[in-house]
Amino acid sequence: EDKVVQSPLSLVVHEGDTVTLNCSYEVTNFRSLLWYKQEKKAPTFLFMLTSSGIEKKSGRLSSILDKKELFSILNITATQTGDSAVYLCAASKGNAGNMLTFGGGTRLMVKP
Amino acid sequence: DAGVTQSPTHLIKTRGQQVTLRCSPKSGHDTVSWYQQALGQGPQFIFQYYEEEERQRGNFPDRFSGHQFPNYSSELNVNALLLGDSALYLCASSWNRGKNEQYFGPGTRLTVT
Questions:
Q1: How many Cβ atoms are within 10 Å of B95's Cβ, its own excluded?
Q2: Which of A25, A95, B44, B76 could form a Cys-Cys staple with A91, CB 3.0–4.6 A?
Q3: A99 vs B58: CB contact, 8 Å cut-off?
Q4: Got the DSSP string for B34-79?
Q5: Do A106 and A46 touch, CB atoms closer than 8 A?
Q6: Considering CB atoms only, which of A4, A97, A104 is closest to B50?
């Protein structure tokens, strides 16, 4: 059975801190790893990682995939209160349609 | 450019009733996937529609059914509602020939009493 596990479950930091969120996966016919930010309802797309070892960056956020060890990390530097959200990772399969298997999410709270 | 839209925003139903949720994909997208997100959990894949047919299905009973229309919009139907069907129902759209990044709508919050 396909499985995606995120850690930690929750995290409380102060503005300016750097955080690392973890995502491990066991998915047959794996294709790519996606990260989403969910603040209230709609998960917002952050990154899609397909190749191992290539870091993707967007502002203060960055992510990398290790296909040998089957995990990904999402880093957020100089955190702001607006980064408070649930961060979801999902693994897509290589068959037609790319159904996503999600982890349970990491709830991040950034205090002023 | 309109993103993914869903209706209604909230819905309250009684056990045993039936419900229909609607989704319009992002402009240029032709594939619609539906997910169920229980409180405090990650979304779970229900099914995906492409070319007006169900292409993939997750581990959900036949009470969950769907439809895709020629304009790519989609409906999710749930029959014989159970208390455990209470959740946020998310629709995601993507372009079949693209990188398959899925973009999500704001969801429909269904409460079954």
A1: 16
A2: A25
A3: yes
A4: EEEE-TTS--EEEEEEETTEEEEE-S--TTEEEEE-TTS-EEEEE-
A5: no
A6: A97
At B51-79, the pLDDT tens digits run: 999 998 999 999 999 999 999 999 999 99
The Cα of B42 is separated from the nearest Cα of chain A by a number of Å equal to 4
Q: What is the DSSP letter of B86?
A: -
Cβ-based neighbours of A77, under 8 Å, separated by 6 or more: A18, A60, A62
For the segment A50-71, the average pLDDT, to the nearest whole number, is 92
| Strands (DSSP E) found in B58-102 | 64-68, 74-78, 87-94
Which of A42, A95, A103 is opposite residue B105, by nearest beta carbon? A42
| Cα–Cα distance measured from residue A65 to residue A60, given in angstroms and rounded to the nearest whole number | 17
Spatial distance between the Cα atoms of B37 and B41, rounded to a whole number of angstroms: 6
Mean pLDDT of B10-16: 97
Q: What is the CA radius of gyration of chain B?
A: 13
Contact B4 A42 (CB under 8 A): yes
Chain A residues touching residue B96 (CB < 8 angstroms): 96
Distance CA B62, CA B43 (A): 19
Residue of chain B nearest A103, judged by CA positions:
B42
**Cβ distance B41 to B17 under 8 Å?**
no
Q: Measured at the alpha carbon of residue A95, what is the angle toward residues B47 and A52, in degrees to the nearest 5?
A: 115
